[in-house]
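Sequence in, structure out. Go.
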Amino acid sequence: MRLFAIGDTHLPSTRNKDMHRFGWAEHPLPLQRAWDEKVRPEDIVIVAGDISWATRPPEVLEDLKWLNERPGRKVLVRGNHDYWWGDSASKLRKLLEPFSTLEAFLQNCAVVMGPWLIAGSRLWTAPEAPPMPGGEMGDEAADLSYVERETRRLNTSIEDALKKEKQSPTPLRRVVAVHFPPVYANERPTAFSGPIEAFQPKVCVYGHLHAAGIAAGFTGERAGVRYVLASCDAAGFSPVLLDEA
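Output:
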C-alpha cells in the first residue's frame, strides 16, 4: 500500500472552466493518464485542495465522479477555490456518499487511512509569505482573521489525530495535508509551521502554488518534517508518492 498526493486538480465543473489560458494543455487528460498508470486501487491518494471550479454542489458532481473513477482511496482537503464544499460536514458527507472511493475529508478532524494518520486544514496565506504573482491562479492576500481561524482548525485536527493515535491498536505514521504552504522558501516560521513541526509528521504535503509561484514554497526537510509541494503543475501532472507501507 502506498500514499500519494496531488493538489489543484482544478476540474472544470459544469461551468466548463478550462485551464488552457494557464498553459495546462488538454487538462485533465495528462493527469488522468498518469494517475491511472501509477496508482493502484488499494493505494491512498490525498487530494490537496482546489479540486474543482464548481461554486455549488450540483456543479461539482461530474468532477467528483471523475475523481471517484481514478484508482485509489481518496482523502479530500479543501482549497481556496472549493466554494462548492460549504461549511457543513454532514452535508459534505452526504454529497460524497455516492462516490465509494472518496472515503474521507479533513474538516476539523483527522482520519486514519491504512497505516497513515492524516491531519490538516486548508490554511491561508501567512504574513510571512514572500511577494508572489497574483491573479486568478496567484496568491490570496494575507488576512489575519483567516490565518487565526485556520490555525484553530489545524490545531483541532492535530488534537483529533493525537486522540486517534492513542486509540489505535497499531502504530500509525503521522502525515499533515494542507492546501496553502505552511512555510515558504524564506523559511520564516508561520502560525502554521509551529503546530505542524511540534506534531512531527513524517511528511507535510501542500499545493496552491503555480507557475512562477512554485519557487516561493519550501520543499525538503525542516525541523524533522519533510515538506512536499504537490500542486498539479509543480508535480508534473502526476500523483506524488509520499510513503510506502
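Check: The chain has a mean pLDDT of 94. DSSP finds five helices and eleven strands in the chain.
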